[in-house]
Amino acid sequence: MIAPANRTKFLKQKNLKEKSVTNNRDMKPEERSRNIELVWKYRRLWDAMSAFRQRRKRNKEYFHGNQWGDKITDKNGESITEAQNIINQGKIPLKNNMISSTVTSILGVFRQSYGKPEVIARNLDNQRLGEMLTCMAEYIYQVERTKELDAKDLLEFIISGFCAQTVDYQWDDEKGRNEEVFVSHNPSRMFLNMGIEDPRGSDISTIGVLMDMTIDEACQRFAHNKADANKIRNIYKLCTKTYLEYTYRQFAEPKDKFLDFFVPYDQKMCRVIQAWEKEVEESYLVHDKMEGKWYEFPVSEKAQIDEMIRQRELDIEYEGLDYESCKIDEPEYHTATYWKVRYLSPFGDILYEARSPFAHNSHPFVVCMGHLIDGEIHSFVENIIDQQRYINRLITMIDFIMGASAKGVLVFPENAIPKGMSKEEILEEWTSYNGVIFANLKPGVPVPQQISTNATNIGASEMLYLQMQMIRDVSGVHGALQGKEPKSNTASSLYAQEAQNSQINVLDLLESFTEFRTARDYKAMKIAPQCYDEPFFINLSGREYEKEAHWWNPEEAAKTDIYVNLSENNNSAVYRMQLNQIMIKAMEMGLVDFETVLQSGIVPNGERMLTIIERRKQQLQKEQAAMQAAQMQGQAQGQAMAEAGASQAEVMQAGADAAIAGLEGAENADPRAVELINQALA
After folding, report:
1. Residue of 69, 72, 167 whose CA lies nearest to 117
2. Which of 91, 184, 529, 612 has a beta carbon 3.0–4.6 Å from 554's, enabling a disulfide?
3. Considering only 249-253, 401-405, 644-648, 658-662, which range has the smallest mean pLDDT?
4. Higher pLDDT, 312 or 677
5. Rounded to whole angstroms, how far apart are CA atoms 154 and 121?
6. What is the pTM of this model?
7. What is the reported pLDDT for 480?
8. What are phi and psi for residue 586, nearest 5 degrees?
């Protein structure tokens, strides 16, 4: 019978079949052909996203102010940019970049309302583990400075409609342990399978990214020994620009000017193709009723399964066991899906190949795709480019009209030129202060005059205002959202409500990005027990947790079923105002005290005020303790004096002296208490 230690575990267990550095010349012919075919497959997927990369490039140019870069055909049939066409006419291409200010306003709203992760255990018995996982999630946010990373990815999402991150972990030399890392990727370097229609990415079956790294970094990441390092250096000796162009460009020309699938832009770098694919493997599932477990075996081990079943039947007969409860059922045919990662060179050499090593059994990518319809990705900026173009056109048109209009043109009839004066003398006298020109005008000859025309009143200014208002309506970014000064007599509560309502226009954009962050944080928490596989104390600043929650327990975390929620941030003005009103009302009704209001975190400098109150409490407790000790000492002294025959006045004076001495000996004693005792004895 096959020993349990040699059995392949069931689906959820790790059964990695890794393959280290392998030169394609050392592969079998069928394996070499397969890898070359995979490289071309990834190239085709990357080419399929060419239209998206072109739209992204155009959107990026408009955001950064290069808004006259679209190509047109001039009257000579040549392809030139719109800016060059205007320059050829002797004018300057003007622009008013409304896209940049609109996008910046949305980023400001995001930073102001940036929420923190909250991990919740689905099982009621494991709720205390939720706080521990929340503490770990916030620790990862602080280590990775996630707010800045997310702001830049939101900018990418607004411009291109697509952003992606990978959730992984790696060794940190400074801390001497593994740390989780969030890596943002350039969408122009990514490729995905075609036909994606689910914005959550559930129908992604192939995803990858083009990576450029130095040869030393490639050896550090993929070499397990000296032999692997030598193989990697030999692989990339052939991956030169000339050899790659000779091998591949006779079949396929690059579609992007500065980015090629096979050749890195920097010739000192090595191109690595990272690809994750969902694959299917045939297997047999075997149910061992004696052990109460399922086992998975490759199809090639069918003979071993039959032998294991036969041996079990012999054991049952020999031991006299119950057949139905101890037998091994007949194997069931099964197809299992799993994610596989490959790191390949441009020639199909294997740098690393294995099943997904992560606890979530999936790829490490998290993607956000905006306005995904029929597999096409479109962005927020793309929707307002037409209004931006028309604004630029109107500004340039007004400049054209103003440049061509008459501005103080002098009309002087030639037959009215006085005798003895030249044209130059007339012009000099006309423009001189208090100048005088004597002219002998004949009947019917008009008087010399200057002409100034207002040729811009053709509705261009009104149209410009209309387009600037339209770009606000299309984008949903209005004055209140941009923090502009309100009109006079506008109530603060009304303006705050307008700012809150204006966020509804960009709510779809921000909510889509929130779902992206939630999926990213879920993967981060699923691999946290793998990364931080030993208990340690999570040292955090800012948020208060129970002391027990700061102790990381990877074993319990790995067994906990969770979901992640991004809590609302209380940095917005409307949120703080509403919470202030609620807490003050509760304090007036006696439901909470002032310290609770300060602990809610809505009062400016609340932590400092809490520190002062706590210090004052400790001081009062010391004074009360000193007073009680002095009182007990005075009572004992008075009783002794009374027994010795002292008068009542002498006993009272001795007790007061002891109380005063106790107060004066106390640290930071209140002098008013000493004064009140003296007044009482006066």
Report:
1. 167
2. 529
3. 249-253
4. 312
5. 28
6. 0.74
7. 52
8. -65, -35
Residue among 334, 466, 454 at smallest CA distance from 394: 466
Q: Which of 457-466, 517-526, 601-610, 647-656 has the highest mean pLDDT?
A: 517-526
Q: Is the pLDDT of residue 609 over 50?
A: yes
Cβ neighbours of residue 2 closer than 8 Å, sequence gap 6 or more: 304, 307, 308
Give burial (CB, 10 Å; 0-12/13-18/19+) of 532: buried
Please tell me the distance from the alpha carbon of residue 8 to that of residue 15, in angstroms, as a whole number.
7
In degrees rounded to 5, what are phi and psi of residue 478?
Answer: -105, -175
Q: Which residue has the tokens 């030999």?
A: 234
Which value, in Å, is the radius of gyration of the alpha carbons in the chain? 40
pLDDT at residue 15 greater than cutoff 50:
no
Interior angle at CA 680, CA 674 and CA 681, nearest 5: 95
Cα distance between residue 679 and residue 676, in whole Å: 5
Distance, CA of 499 to CA of 586 (rounded, Å): 27
Q: How far apart are CA 421 and CA 546, in angstroms?
A: 99
Contact predicate 135/540, CB 8 Å: yes
Local confidence band at 497 (pLDDT 50, 70, 90 cut-offs): low
Give the mean pLDDT of 348-358: 91
The encoded tokens of residue 426 equal: 């007339």
User: Cα(50)–Cα(261) distance, rounded to whole angstroms?
Assistant: 11
Q: Where are the beta strands (DSSP E) in 553-648?
A: 562-566
Q: Give φ, ψ of 561 to 5 degrees.
A: -85, 125
Token pair of 636 as six digits: 């004992």
**Residue 260 near residue 254 (C-beta atoms within 8 A):** yes
Nearest to 282 by CA among 358, 355, 333: 333
Those residues whose C-beta lies under 8 Å from the C-beta of residue 292, and which sit 6 or more positions away, are none
The secondary structure of 116-139 as a DSSP string is PEEEEESSGGGHHHHHHHHHHHHH
pLDDT above 70: residue 669: no
- Packed helices 50-63 and 146-160: angle between N→C axes, nearest 10 degrees: 110
- pLDDT computed for residue 668 by the predictor: 47
Q: Answer with the residue of higher pLDDT: 454 or 29.
A: 29
The residues near 470 (Cβ < 8 Å, ≥ 6 apart) are 387
CA triple 520-523-529, angle to 5 deg: 140
Using one digit for the tens of pLDDT, what is the confidence trace for 365-413? 999 998 888 888 999 999 889 888 988 888 888 777 777 666 667 777 7
CA distance 611 to 607: 6
Give the integer Cα–Cα distance in Å for 283 and 30.
22
Write the CB contacts of 560 (distance below 8 Å, at least 6 apart in sequence).
121, 123, 126, 129, 130, 133
Cα distance between residue 93 and residue 393, in whole Å: 9
Structure tokens at 373: 């319809």
Query: Rounded to an integer, what distance in angstroms lies between the CA atom of residue 189 and that of residue 197?
Result: 21
Tell me the per-residue pLDDT of 94-111, one tens digit each, with 9 for 90 and over. Answer: 888 889 988 988 898 888
* pLDDT for the residue numbered 299: 84
Token pair in block for residue 596: 């609770």
CB 481 within 8 A of CB 499: yes
Non-local (6+) Cβ contacts of 176 within 8 A are none
Q: How many CA atoms lie within 13 A of 398 on its CB side?
A: 17
